[in-house]
Structure formats: structure tokens, C-alpha cells
Amino acid sequence: MGTVAGMLTEARKLLGLAESPPGSNHNYVTAWYGFDGPWCDMSVSYIAAQSGNLSAVMGKFAYTVAHAQAFANAGRWHYGLGGIRPGDIVFFDWGGSGSIANIDHVGIVEAVRSNGTIVTLEGNTSDMFLRRVRSNCIVGYGRPAYGDASPMPATDGMLRLGSTGNAVKKLQGNLNTVMKSGLTVDGQFGPLTDAAVRAFQSKYRLEVDGIYGPKSAAMMKAALAGKATPVKPTPKPPTGALVVDGIFGPSTCAALQRALNKHGASLVVDGSMGPLTNRALQKYLGVAQDGIVGSITVKALQKKVGATQDGIWGPDTTRKLQTKLNANTF
């Protein structure tokens, strides 16, 4: 069985890994896995295999929902960020539902910061393997069975009858604010708190089970802000002039999305090169809009930015694109 340090060492070796071409879901990680597709979880599997940790991460996965469920089935799953440690496998739902069924991204925790954020190592983020800082849209995490793994937290991150502590105190205070429940804020999840949670869930049309989990927490956040439904997280992409470095990262992708919107696209500027961005780029370049950035699309882009038209999206093409985007001439 491998170690946390071994897992992180192998993950850092992938930093800067891109797709060839961008948008193709093709690189040596997907070649190792066996097919070209969204590769965030493939990269976790690849890294685990290289560090002797494939069984520790529950096996080889490409589907994030199945991977998270495997951790849950093994009793190695925790909702939210409580107790998270380096080496944990953290799962995201960009829609903010907090549900395993809606997970659509995954990364490896590299560090946990005192301000409540985590540093992650992630594949298939802006078509690359990059280091990110995250705090939002986290459903939960799985703790691999490393040879030197920390024990799992005492609870799974859900508050229910019998739970105690500061998290229960916060919940009781929030229920008093939103529902006028009149609870004693004592940190003891007893019958009165259970009834108040159920009343809250009923009012906001949630599953009435008395368990305060991610969906209830998302609704509580909205209710405290005077909203009747959970607020979908708003992407916060990088802004400002681009560094002309030939690296197609989130800043360049966000700038490209803004430029495409000026040409009639209606993209969410999130710094992620997904199928909608690919099609918008293809429409602007006048090529077939299949959502896959292949050699024809790349040659059209290279012609547009003045790069050598070889159909390979490399650093020179990106540098010329970055220059055009900075000059507002793309």
C-alpha cells in the first residue's frame, strides 16, 4: 500500500499536463486509461496507480459519481470539508446541490489552509492538470486507505438526532432565525431540534427526514439571505491583462470566452474550456460546430491569430492568441 506523500509526489509530476489539442480530452493519462473523455477522475486513477495506491482509492474510475459512491460504500466518505486532510479525494458539484448523484468533478487535496480553503491538484480543469484553491461547490471527500492514512472523522458530516457540538449550535441558531423555532442553543440535537429541522425541510420542499445534510444546508444559506430557493454559485474567473506565456489556463480561457461573447456567444465566463465554449469558438472561426477541437478547428484558429497552421495547438498558438486577446483584436 502506498502513502499520502507518494500520491502527492506523483500528482505534482502532472502539473502543466495539457490536452493535445485543447478540447480533445486526449493526453497520456487518457491513453493509459483506454479512452478519450473527461479525465479528472482518470488522472486520480493514473496517479494512484503510479504511486501504489490504486486499491487505496477504491480502484480505477472515470465516472466521479461512481467513485464517490464507492468511498461511501466503504465507509470512507465525509460530506463537506470538516476534517479534510492532504491526500483526500475531494468531489465537486458545480450546480451546488451537494448531492453525490450530481458530482461532476474531482481533485486531490494537496493542502488545507487556515482560512477554510483547500489547495487541490486537478485534471481536466481548463483542459490541463493544474493546482487550484477551492472552497465552494464541494460535496464531500473520500479518504483513501493509504498505508499512513489518518482515521476518518467521527461523523459523516451530517447532523441528525444525537449529534452534538458547535455545528449543532449554529444550526439551532439558524433555525431560530429562519423558522422562529425557539430552540435552546445548547449544541444538543434532540427531539425539539429534530422537529425544527423537519419543519424547515417541509417548508422549503426538501425531503423530510430530519437529517441536516448538504441540500438542507444549501437551502438554509439561501433562507438566511431571504431567498426561497438555493442560489447557484457564480463563477469568479480571473480578470485583467494576460501574461503571454503560451499556457492555456483559466485566465486565457476566460478572456477567450469574453471575446466570443462580444461576437454573439452567450457563454458563462468560468475559465473552463467545455463543449459550449468549443462550439462558440468553432462558430466564430466558421468551422463545423461539433464541440471537439480537432485539427481543422486548430488550423482555423492558427490562421486567425497568425500562427503556423499545423493543426497542433501548442504554446506558440496560445501566445499569439493571448497577444490578440490583450489587444482586443481577436
Automatic annotation (TrEMBL):
SUPFAM superfamilies in the cross-refs: Cysteine proteinases, PGBD-like
Record's signal peptide: none
Residues covered by the Peptidoglycan binding-like domain: 164-220
Domain Peptidase C51: 32-124
InterPro entries: CHAP_dom, Papain-like_cys_pep_sf, Peptidoglycan-bd-like, PGBD-like_sf, PGBDSf
Name under which the protein is recorded: CHAP domain-containing protein
Taxonomic lineage: Bacteria, Bacillati, Actinomycetota, Actinomycetes, Micromonosporales
